[in-house]
Amino acid sequence: MTDSIALSSLLTPLIRQFNPKTILTAGETAASCLQTDNDTRLLHLTTPFKQQQLQHIEPVDLAVISHLTESVDKSAAQAWLGTIKNQYAPHVILISHTELAAKNDWQFTDYLAMGFKHIAGTEEGLRIFSYAIENYQPKRDWLNSRFWANPEMYDKYRW
Questions:
Q1: Which of 9, 26, 30, 159 is most solvent-facing, going by the fewest CB within 10 Å?
Q2: How many domains does the chain have?
């Protein structure tokens, strides 16, 4: 298994950045990395990961998830992650073992397609990804009323 102390040292600054009041952990590695943190209220989900687990949980500030991409087929894992990030947690930290996840057809681009950013990696082959709703969609300069709504020009020109 991985050295949870080394992994904890990678996760601690990330967790502090989000400043969560409630944390959901899912998976053994995630739970072992956060078991010493007594400052927040922890909620833990055990494996195997099933969509029914999510029906009885409360929304949280941060979800730390491990062993999902390695233990569940890709479509079920994507649905599970999508439910977590869209309904229950605005911030998600995902710990994935790249070689084991590749057996379930996970590629690096699959994480990026779900809105995750690669944060760090370990020598044991673990990758840490982060999702934050406030950084998901960057603000674009052209997406504002100056470029799209021009009420003073209505009925003056025909295109």
A1: 159
A2: 1
The backbone torsions φ and ψ at residue 118, rounded to the nearest 5 degrees and listed phi first, read -75, 125
| 90 found inside a domain | yes
Q: Is 159 domain-assigned?
A: no
Q: Where are the beta strands (DSSP E) in 10-159?
A: 22-26, 41-45, 62-66, 91-97, 117-121, 126-132
Q: What is the pLDDT along the chain (159 residues), one digit of tens a residue?
A: 446 667 777 888 888 888 888 888 888 887 777 765 555 577 777 777 777 778 888 888 988 898 888 888 899 889 989 999 988 899 999 999 888 888 889 999 999 999 999 988 877 788 899 999 887 777 777 666 666 666 676 677 665
| 22-26 sheet: strands from edge to edge | 41-45, 22-26, 62-66, 91-97, 126-132, 117-121
What is d(CA 60, CA 87) in angstroms, rounded to the nearest whole number? Answer: 10
The pTM score is 0.78
Please state, in angstroms and rounded to a whole number, the distance separating the CA atoms of residues 28 and 159: 61
Q: What is the CATH number of the domain that holds 91?
A: 3.40.50.150
Q: Is residue 20 part of a domain?
A: yes
Whether 158 is covered by a domain: the verdict is no
Identify residue 126 by its one-letter amino acid code: L
Number of residues that make up the chain? 159
